[in-house]
Amino acid sequence: IASLAVSLLVSAAGLDGFLNRGVVYGVPFAPGGGLSLGMNVFLEKEADRQNVIRSVRLLQEGGVTFVRQSFPWQEIEPEAPGVYRDRNGQDTWAKYDFIVEQLNAAGIGILARVDTIPRWARPPTDNFDQYDKGPPLDFNTYANFVAALATRYKGQIAHFQVWNEPNLDGEWGGKPIL
Q1: Do the strands 109-114 and 159-162 form a parallel or antiparallel pair, or are they unpaired?
Q2: Could you tell me which of 13, 55, 72, 97 has the fewest CB atoms within 10 Å of its CB?
């Protein structure tokens, strides 16, 4: 009976790995272990770095151990594939480097929400006036960006959220999910 139980357990684990394609589901844990108190934040919307520092301090003082922070693709790679500068020549990673640095220094874990496709990566037929968000024309470009993000923040960000609410019209460009 024990060998049957072990066989079933091993089979279930193998089936789970196959069905979920290596994606692990569950609650993120804070750096150092333990349960997390998490919060959804949009620190990238702060124009002043001092406000980011203050917000991170308040998160830390409030006992927040994990945040879901947005990393909008359209802000980081706005002009073309592999180009991480805006129209003014400014480094588009700089703001996010600072946010990650501040959160890491405070011991706050990060779940990186990766969505918001740049116009160059969306189908030219999209209605950009009605839907500022939508799926890319080629999902490989999204995968390339996520890989660049994960590589840049290796050891600093352990969790990534692929997209946000694609079941909503406004998040998926008013199109049915493929």
Answers
A1: parallel
A2: 13
